[in-house]
Design brief:
Number of strands: 11
Order of helices and strands: EHEEHHHHEHEEEEHEEEH
Number of domains: 2
CATH topology of the largest domain: Rossmann fold
Structural class: alpha/beta
CATH architecture of the largest domain: 3-Layer(aba) Sandwich
Distance between the termini: 7 Å
Radius of gyration: 18 Å
Shape: elongated
Number of helices: 8
Largest sheet: 6 strands, parallel
CATH superfamily of the largest domain: TPP-binding domain
CATH class of the largest domain: Alpha Beta
Strand order of the largest sheet: 5-4-1-9-10-11
Amino acid sequence: MKIAVLTGAGVSAESGIKTFRDSDGLWEGYDVMEVASPEGFARNPEVVLDFYNQRRRQLHTVKPNTAHFALAELEKVHDVTIITQNVDDLHERAGSGNVIHLHGELLKARCTQDENLILDWKGDLKLGDLSNKNHQLRPHIVWFGEMVPLIEVAAEVVENAEALIIVGTSMQVYPAAGLMQFAKEDAPIYFVDRKPAISSNSRIQVFAEKATTGVPKVVEILKKQI
């Protein structure tokens, strides 16, 4: 069975990664537009680089949780593709082999002049760190106002899936929130979130709980469907 999984900040939060919520416009005490927009980077690149250096250091201190491991376990039974809004590598560390990062990856950097020139980057990123084309490197993160290059690939995955799991996302951030609309009419949807934005119906089964308890329940249901 082909299964698409859409994950958001709620999955990573349970591993200890602090999440950005749009309500106050702040992320770890920073104005989000100053650290997550091309304009912010142009105005003060050192502040932006330092912000992501802190996020990267934090990522090295956390581990995948039971939700990550349960989704990796599901791969042993079904054809699973994870589409994540998260920029961490916790799905990969848990053992998931097919992960699409819609909003980029914290452990990568890219050339400011060539968005296709992407490097693995585990440590701090500083002003003066250049690509082989002699241009400054920046975090490989999709900032506000930038295109989401993998959204069409993700839409095709959802379109071809026989079941869709949505975990730990408010379904408020577009274009990712629109992905559910691509699901087949007969594809069941399993929605896991502490404060679900949608209700159960004949097609959607809602688990109003945290990812670490809800995801294993969904995985057990799907494991039985061969």
